[in-house]
């Protein structure tokens, strides 16, 4: 917190346009699919609520150090999910009492401690861009390698969830993020994939 500073919403924020496009697509989809209005409004409101976190973060204007701490916390949480999930494949299907889900393959789908491979996939997909973008930032070489290793571990666990929706979300999100923020993260994603 800085003295004499007041939070304010950023003007000309490019994500405002993306949020507007998202809402328009949601409304159009709800109309075309005959979704009851109350269900559509609640679904859109819940998603916009999640998007509001980004706007609030930008309005608060946190210090760069606070931002990096938040990124590290997210990546560490994702690594815990990933390592337990990978352990379900490598060590024991019921690692720490958390059973992996079965599918048509002999491997099975990892659930980590989340109990559902699709939820594990969602968490990993949400967290994967953080280490990918951090790995291409101009920092010490050792840190870039650490972020790259974290990206690889999270990506491996994401593949082992066999969650096609999470895979699609990561690909779409990384293409958009890579084009808008830093193409080098998209390149790293392609190399690791």
- Enumerate the spans where pLDDT stays under 50 for 5 or more consecutive residues: none
Q: Class by helix and strand content? A: mainly alpha
Using DSSP, what is the number of strands?
0
What gap, in angstroms, lies between the N and C termini? 40 Å
Indicate the percent of residues in helices: 55-70%
Shape: globular
Mean pLDDT metric: 80
Largest sheet: none
The number of helical elements comes to 8
| Radius of gyration, in angstroms, nearest whole number | 19 Å
List the helices and strands in order.
Answer: HHHHHHHH
Taken as a percent bin, the fraction of beta residues is under 5%
What does this structure look like?
With 193 residues, the protein is mainly α. Helix content is 70%, strand content 0%. It has helices spanning 14-32, 37-60, 64-90, 117-127, 129-135, 141-160, 164-180, 183-192. α3 packs across α6 and α4 runs parallel beside α7. It is globular and about 50 Å long. The N and C termini lie far apart (40 Å). The relative contact order is 0.09.
């Amino acid at each position: 917190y800085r003295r004499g500073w007041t939070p304010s919403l950023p003007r000309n924020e490019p994500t405002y346009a993306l949020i507007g496009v998202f809402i328009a697509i949601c409304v159009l989809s709800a109309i075309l699919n005959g979704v009851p209005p109350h269900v559509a409004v609640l679904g859109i409101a819940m998603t916009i609520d999640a998007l509001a976190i980004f706007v609030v973060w930008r309005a608060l204007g946190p210090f760069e150090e606070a931002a990096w701490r938040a990124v590290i916390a997210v990546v560490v949480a994702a690594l815990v999910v990933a390592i337990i999930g990978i352990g379900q494949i490598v060590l024991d299907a019921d690692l720490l009492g958390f059973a992996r889900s079965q599918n048509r393959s002999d491997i099975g789908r990892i659930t980590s401690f989340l109990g559902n491979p699709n939820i594990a996939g969602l968490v990993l997909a949400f967290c994967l861009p953080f280490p990918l973008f951090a790995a291409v930032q101009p920092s010490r070489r050792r840190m870039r390698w650490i972020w790259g290793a974290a990206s690889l571990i999270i990506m491996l666990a994401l593949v082992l969830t066999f969650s096609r929706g999470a895979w699609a979300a990561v690909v779409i999100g990384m293409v958009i993020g890579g084009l808008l923020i830093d193409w080098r993260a998209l390149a790293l994603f392609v190399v690791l994939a």
